[in-house]
Design a protein that fits this description.
This protein is mostly beta strands. The chain has one helix at 104-121; strands spanning 12-13, 17-23, 34-44, 47-52, 61-66, 74-86, 89-96.
Length: 122
């Protein structure tokens, strides 16, 4: 049997609330961005699995805002790789894009600290 798992990063169970920008703000400022509340199911340094009330289309590029206990949330950008309906919610896999304009390095640090806490508690 062939292993279809393509992830190289260690994943950690996580139940954090995040906001996903499902509609971008319009350049003429007539419409603001539309955010949806999501919950992480697991996280890695280069991605996350999230649960939402609405379906996210694969190949869609999203901005994700993560509360990290600081004054401003971490801003991440990622691509929806897959979505499936589970009960009354949708679960999606998001691959994060590294970028100077995003908090990718702070996210990787958060995931590392989460993993160290998890290891210490087991």
């Amino acid at each position: 049997m062939m292993n279809t798992e393509r992830r190289n990063d260690r994943r950690f169970d996580d139940q954090s609330l995040v906001f996903v920008e499902v509609e971008s703000a319009q350049p003429d400022a007539t419409a603001s961005a539309k955010l949806a509340l999501a919950r992480t199911l697991d996280i890695s340094s280069r991605g996350m699995q999230i649960a939402t009330k609405e379906s996210l289309l694969p190949e869609r590029i999203l901005r994700i805002f993560v509360d990290n206990g600081e004054e401003y949330p971490l801003t991440l950008v990622g691509e929806v790789k897959w979505t499936r309906q589970v009960g009354n919610e949708y679960q999606s896999g998001v691959e994060l894009y590294p970028s100077r304009e995003t908090a990718q390095s702070q996210w990787a640090d958060k995931v590392l600290k989460h993993g160290l806490r998890e290891a210490a508690n087991s």
